[in-house]
Design brief:
This protein has three domains: 97 residues, Double Stranded RNA Binding Domain, CATH 3.30.160; 43 residues, no CATH class; 325 residues, pyruvate-formate lyase- activating enzyme. It is built from 17 helices and 18 strands. It has a nine-stranded mixed β-sheet with strand order 14-15-13-12-11-10-9-6-16, with helices on both faces. The protein has a five-stranded mixed β-sheet with strand order 2-1-3-4-5, with helices on one face. Strand 1, helix 1 and strand 2 form a beta-alpha-beta unit. Helix 3 packs across helix 4. It is globular.
Length: 490
């Protein structure tokens, strides 16, 4: 498709808007009007007193156009032009595709943060009015923003300028799920790398602990993710966790999470090692409790094994367990997703995270000229709505939320929790509240300016073999941590 931007430079936001409806379409951007079967013309015409904003969309043999105008003396002229021209294009897409995304023209990954900023400046009512009237967000999503923002603000207030969180990456899984977009490697292909990886990860953790101590940073939360951390043996897990416990000051630690993740990697021995090392929160992530769907996504375990792993964790003393679900998985239906909710809620986990499936393959037109993503998107939207209703009815309230590009239905990921059982790390990483020191392959250290908003990133090498082969270079790069904090001590 051709996207034209005539007399304006709003190409970035308009391209993102196009991808809500056409997530995998190749988009060519030009600055002159286009013709043909697949184009989106957007035009900004400034007159003496008013500016005309116009969009025309040709798609699937249909054409729609919308226009509006704003006063040239508008106090937020440029932002208003961008928003209004996006609104015109959005209406064109909705008319042609028959799909109305519940987040309207909002494309950002942290809608609750925008809501918080608007509410702080003008009050909650004005923030909600702006979301509804200017961004075209549905009442349901506005309500979700309001609830999550209230919870996130309480969690953010616990952080201080010297606070930081530690992230530990274990990028290995027993098998690779068909929907997965994370950097992870199946044990079948990468098992030989794990011993050396664990050795170097422990070295990086020790070095990182030194940076934290020298710069007088206060460790608030630890999160070990992946991949599937419990792919490690019990002995390897004990080695890594012992290094953390012996090298970092844990006196101010509020939370220590390990993603136990795949039920087929969980054993009593591993759980006992995790518990012994001070971990107080784990995730057991079925994604679905439907065996046929598990098979379709490449999982080698059953729903019954998930339940057994959950009960085993309870026997080992874990009283803060999260379970991840995904709405919109291949072969799943609204009825089978409802059955998944039944089985998960029956276990009474302390928190449940509901993700929306991230699309991985290009859309193909049906004979009726509709995108399959519209049908799947509507189904996923119903799943997400049902999840919110039923999980909230169980007293498990939304506490954090974020969005990803190319998710089915342009939906969101939401963490629900019992009061006091929220994952603080999830909020800190999404809000960019404070520094995250990250260790392991594909991990990203985010150095947050004390009492400010500037963030400097240090990227670890993505793949385990790179991490192993270029470890020395990586440690040279991480020396930037000291110089970063030295700047703010002057």
């Amino acid at each position: 498709m051709i996207l034209t931007t005539v007399n304006h430079d709003f190409r970035y936001e308009l391209e993102k808007l196009c991808r809500i409806f056409l997530p995998f379409e190749k988009i060519e951007i030009i600055d002159t009007l286009a013709e043909g079967n697949a184009y989106a013309n957007t035009v900004c015409e400034r007159g003496e007193e008013k500016t005309r904003l116009y969009a025309a969309l040709s798609l699937f043999g249909k054409t729609r156009e919308y226009e509006t105008e704003i006063e040239n003396n508008s106090p937020d002229y440029t932002a208003d032009c961008e928003r209004e021209i996006a609104t015109c294009l959005y209406h064109c897409f909705c008319d042609i595709t028959g799909y109305t995304p519940p987040w309207g023209i909002l494309t950002g990954v942290r809608p609750a943060k925008l809501y918080s900023r608007l509410a702080s400046a003008n009050g909650g009512e004005d923030a909600e009015q702006y979301f509804k009237e200017k961004l075209l967000v549905s009442d349901e999503k506005i309500s979700l923003c309001r609830e999550t923002n209230a919870s996130e603000e309480k969690i953010v207030s616990l952080s201080a300028p010297e606070s930081f969180s530690l992230y530990i990456s274990i990028p290995f899984c027993p098998t690779r799920c068909s929907y997965c977009s994370f950097v992870s490697h199946s044990v079948e292909h990468a098992k030989k790398l794990i011993p050396e990886y664990v050795k170097l990860l422990c070295e990086e953790l020790k070095i990182t602990a030194g940076y934290a101590a020298r710069n007088h940073l206060r460790l608030e939360t630890i999160y070990m993710g992946g991949g599937t951390p419990t792919t490690l043996t019990a002995e390897q897990m004990d080695t890594v966790l012992s290094v953390v416990r012996e090298n970092f000051d844990l006196s101010n630690l509020r939370e220590f999470t390990v993603e136990a993740g795949r039920p087929d990697t969980i054993t009593r021995e591993k759980l006992e090692v995790i518990k012994k090392n001070g971990v107080d929160r784990i995730s057991i992530n079925p994604q679905t409790m439907n065996d046929s769907v598990l098979s379709a996504i490449g999982r080698r375990h059953t729903a019954e094994e998930t339940e057994k792993a959950f009960y085993l964790a309870r026997e080992c003393g874990f009283d803060n367990i999260n379970m991840d679900l995904i709405a919109g998985l291949p072969t799943d239906t609204e009825d089978s997703f409802s059955a998944t909710l039944d089985r998960v809620l029956a276990l009474s986990p302390e928190s449940i995270t509901v993700h929306s499936l991230a699309l991985k393959r290009a859309a193909t037109l049906s004979t009726e000229g509709e995108l399959p993503e519209k049908t799947v998107g509507d189904m996923a939207k119903n799943m997400v709505s049902a999840a919110r209703s039923r999980i909230s009815a169980a007293g498990i309230a939304p506490y954090y939320m974020y969005r990803q590009s190319k998710t089915v239905g342009n939906l969101e990921n939401v963490g629900y929790s019992l009061p006091g059982k929220e994952c603080l790390y999830n909020v800190y990483i999404m809000d960019e509240t404070h520094t995250i020191l990250a260790c392991g392959a594909s991990a990203v250290t985010k150095l947050k300016e004390p009492c400010g908003n500037f963030i400097e990133r240090i990227f670890n090498y993505k793949y385990p073999y790179e991490y192993i082969n270029r470890f020395g270079e990586l440690m040279e790069r991480k020396a930037r941590i000291d110089s970063f904090y030295e700047t703010y001590r002057k």
